[in-house]
């Protein structure tokens, strides 16, 4: 028992000693671990975060097109590799950007040279109406210097330059912007002579990358030199004028001779001769009509429409026109349905020219109407103290695609079999517009047409 007791006491002492030693060891190791953990806790985030921060900054710089940005991580771990790859990418981007810039500069120079060498004047404006470019021809005709215009506001320039004001009037004046469809004819002293230019404003629209909507980024003002065409046009007008004038006298005398031949006092004609005389009479009338139209158009083209405005009643005009076309209408068994509103005040108009217009509309209506129909002639006063005269026929009508062309000179609807010059309606338009009026057409193919004069 004693022996056992001693052994137990010895073992317990050893165990106590060992446990004390173990506690010391554990405490020491625990402290060391804690210190290491504390050091790691302090250092590790900066080791990871710093390169990421630097990398993020560099990526931002690259995104902002600063391709010279590089990253420098000393370590040989994954960050080192990442830095190397990033630097390679940045270098390649830098090379690509430089070569692209060079190419763009080349392309820009080429386009600038091209625009400068164009014989037509060209002016380029940005969306804020600042001058981007103006080629030498444009500078020359506007009498301006490059350094005074490039980058300057066109509205400022237009204040001291009349031609620029004319060129940009409907661009700067928003109320006129819509009236941009038709090219405008401008007379300018260029090439030591009076030259004619056709102005065209071309809006430049793009769809920016990644966007869906079109954006206006400026306008190009283009002047087409049409002087040579104008000169040819003048020559043509003069030629037509002279020839028609020269032809008018002999044809009128043929007409007179025919009238004399028809006179029984000179001698009687057999039915065959009478028939031939009728044919000659028809042809001479047609020739005289064509010559009359040609003379009218030369008057219009040379800008020499002489108006003789007098107070005129609508009844007078319509009576004149219906009398002049009555016999042709009878040949096709067409009658006139005249509806003139009561109490229309007399208008101040050129009686002869307005009557010519209505006569022409009536003779067209007769020509293109079906036989045995009625042509409606309606006149009424409109709200704005104007008078509206409309001529409606029942007949072949006009295809919609030709409606906006039929008032053009020499235009005839393709396939029109009836003889004519294609001048009648264009003269009508000029005569009516010269008096401040309008002429319009409405038509349904296969049903008929209505021509309306507002004067
Ligand atoms: P022209 O009658 O001498 O050919 P116009 O200028 O008077 O010349 O008419 C131009 C064209 O318009 C005609 O060729 C014809 O095709 C068409 N046109 C004019 N009036 C009518 C009408 N009332 N109905 C159908 N077509 C018409």
Layout: helices, strands, pairs:
Elements (H helix, E strand, L loop, with lengths): L1 H62 L14 H40 L4 E5 L4 E4 L1 H7 L3 H4 L4 H7 L1 H11 L11 E7 L2 E14 L8 E11 L1 H36 L8 H31 L7 E4 L1 H18 L3 E6 L6 E4 H18 L5 E8 L5 E8 L29 H11 L3 E7 L3 E7 L1
Parallel strand pairs: 7-9
Antiparallel strand pairs: 1-2, 1-5, 3-4, 4-5, 6-8, 9-10, 10-12, 11-12
Helix pairs in contact: 5-6, 7-8, 8-11, 9-10, 10-11
Q: Could you name the CATH topology of the largest domain?
A: Heat Shock Protein 90
What is the helix tally?
11
Element pattern in H and E: HHEEHHHHEEEHHEHEEHEEHEE
Share in helix: 40-55%
The outline comes out as elongated
End-to-end separation: 148 Å
Count of individual domains: 4
Per DSSP E runs of 2 or more residues, the count of β-strands stands at: 12
The description of the largest β-sheet is: 5 strands, antiparallel
Which ligands are bound? Answer: adenosine-5'-diphosphate
How would you sum up this structure, described in words?
By secondary structure, the chain is α+β, with helices and mostly antiparallel strands. It folds into 4 domains: 98 residues; 108 residues, PAS domain (Beta-Lactamase), CATH 3.30.450; 71 residues, Helix Hairpins, CATH 1.10.287; 146 residues, 2-Layer Sandwich (Heat Shock Protein 90). It is 54% helix and 19% strand. The protein has a 5-stranded antiparallel beta sheet, with helices on both faces. β4 and β5 form a beta hairpin. α5 packs across α6, α7 packs antiparallel against α8 and α10 packs antiparallel against α11. The site of adenosine-5'-diphosphate has 21 residues, from α10 and α11.
């Amino acid at each position: 028992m004693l022996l056992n007791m001693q052994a137990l006491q010895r073992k317990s002492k050893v165990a106590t000693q060992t446990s004390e030693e173990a506690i010391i060891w554990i405490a020491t190791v625990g402290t060391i671990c804690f210190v290491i953990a504390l050091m790691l806790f302090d250092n590790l985030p900066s080791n990871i975060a710093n390169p990421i921060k630097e990398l993020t900054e560099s990526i931002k710089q690259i995104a902002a097109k600063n391709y010279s940005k590089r990253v420098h991580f000393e370590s040989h771990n994954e960050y080192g590799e990442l830095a190397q790859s990033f630097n390679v990418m940045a270098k390649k981007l830098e090379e690509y950007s430089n070569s692209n810039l060079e190419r763009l500069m080349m392309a820009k120079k080429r386009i600038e040279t091209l625009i400068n060498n164009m014989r037509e004047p060209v002016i380029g404006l940005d969306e804020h109406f600042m001058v981007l470019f103006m080629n030498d021809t444009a500078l020359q005709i506007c009498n301006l210097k490059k350094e005074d215009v490039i980058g300057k506001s066109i509205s400022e320039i237009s204040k001291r330059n009349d031609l620029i004001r004319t060129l940009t009037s409907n661009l700067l004046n928003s109320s006129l912007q819509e009236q941009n469809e038709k090219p405008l004819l401008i007379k300018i002293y260029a090439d030591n002579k009076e030259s004619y230019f056709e102005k065209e404003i071309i809006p430049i629209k793009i769809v920016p990358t990644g966007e869906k909507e079109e954006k206006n980024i400026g306008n190009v003002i283009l002047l087409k030199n049409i002087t040579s065409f104008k000169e040819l046009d003048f020559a043509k007008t003069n030629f037509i004028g002279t020839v028609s004038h020269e032809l008018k006298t002999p044809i009128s005398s043929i007409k007179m001779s025919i009238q004399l031949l028809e006179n029984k006092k000179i001698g009687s004609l057999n039915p065959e001769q009478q028939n031939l005389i009728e044919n000659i009479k028809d042809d001479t009338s047609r020739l005289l009509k064509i010559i009359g139209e040609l003379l009218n158009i030369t008057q219009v083209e040379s800008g020499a429409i002489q108006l003789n405005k007098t107070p005129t009643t609508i009844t007078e005009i319509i009576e004149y026109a219906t009398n002049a076309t009555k016999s042709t209408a009878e040949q096709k068994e067409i009658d006139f349905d005249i509806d003139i509103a009561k109490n229309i005040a007399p208008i101040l108009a050129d009686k002869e020219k307005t009557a010519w217009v209505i006569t022409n509309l009536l003779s067209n209506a007769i020509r293109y109407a079906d036989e045995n129909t009625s042509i409606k002639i309606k006149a009424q006063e409109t709200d704005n103290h104007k008078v509206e005269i409309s001529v409606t026929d029942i007949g072949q009508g006009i295809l919609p695609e030709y409606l906006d062309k039929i008032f053009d000179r020499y235009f005839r609807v393709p396939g029109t079999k009836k003889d004519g010059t294609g001048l009648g309606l264009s003269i009508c338009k000029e005569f009516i517009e010269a008096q401040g009026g309008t002429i319009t057409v409405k038509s349904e193919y296969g049903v008929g047409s209505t021509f309306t004069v507002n004067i």
